Amino acid sequence: MTPALLSEVLGKSPKGIFDPNLLVGNESSDDAAVYRLNDEQALVATTDFFMPIVDDAFDFGRIAATNALSDVYAMGARPFMALAVCGMPVSKLPADIIARILAGGQSVCNEAGVVIAGGHSIDSPEPIYGLVALGLVHPQRVKRNDQARAGDVLILGKGLGVGILSAALKKGELGAKAYAQMLETTTKLNTPGLPLSEMSTVHALTDVTGFGLLGHLREICRGSKLGARIRFDDIPILSAARHIAQAGHVTGASARNWSSLADEVDVPAQMPQWQRNLLTDPQTSGGLLVACAPESVQRVLEIFQADGFRQAQVIGELSEGPARIVVS
């Protein structure tokens, strides 16, 4: 769903019961729910699943699992257990193909030290796979998306362009090198979330996924009641995606994302359409978006670099003012 539609649906839904141990719920459009178990532990819970964005069954399973675990890392938590969500057209897909999807997800969970303890499966018209992911974090180290402060610096951990690469793949116009780059970024676990959770100078954290960079940055701005200024030339972009975007490839979700937030974003009148498309390009297993104090920028970048996130870089700042995003 687009941000606007999701907000409308949730706004019409009845309110649930109040529980003081629910540290993070629907109120801030955050990445996962957080429930305090005791003074030392909080449970982080999230779910994510989707239809294939690649043709290879094993790769699909890897991407879906990495994407689901990302929301746990984005809260500063360590994932430890997952449940598989599996809907498959059993009359059309052979059992060995379904097994390959599950094996792909299992391989990522093994890498992350996550136990897949069960799940649920149905016979569905289209293949669907993902995880319910659970993590643990100290209650005082939870990283929300609505606690940013004026003067914070914005850092993005992965390059944009996954949606555009996926669009080109569906049209049979994605080369082998570009596919390899797409697979590399979508299966790279956002493990920097763990050391970032230990930094008091990291004030807000989220991951860039289906709503695109602007959509998830808007959630930080709205929740924190701040404005943002970002510089397009500083935003990391997957090298394979840049020329494909310039060639006109775009997803339908990008346009829907833009229509949901255009009134809250200022972009240069002369900005090319391909650049606007990248700003709202829906990411699968996208990068962490960090809001941190200026004095901690170097340490945050070192954490990303140490985990192999070579494209991580500063993209802008937050400031006092209305929750608007200015792109220069």
Give a quick precis of the structure.
This protein has helices at residues 3-11, 57-74, 95-112, 162-170, 176-186, 193-197, 212-224, 239-246, 252-261, 273-279, 297-306, and strands at residues 22-24, 33-36, 42-50, 78-88, 115-123, 128-137, 153-156, 202-207, 227-230, 265-266, 288-292, 313-319, 325-327. The chain is an alpha+beta fold and 328 residues long. The strands form 2 sheets. A 7-stranded mixed sheet has the order 8-11-7-12-9-13-10, sandwiched between helices. Strands 1-2-3-6-4-5 form a 6-stranded mixed sheet, with helices on one face.
Euclidean distance between termini CA atoms: 28 Å
Shape: globular
- Sequence of strands across the biggest β-sheet: 8-11-7-12-9-13-10
The whole-angstrom Rg is: 19 Å
DSSP strand tally: 13
Main sheet properties: 7 strands, mixed
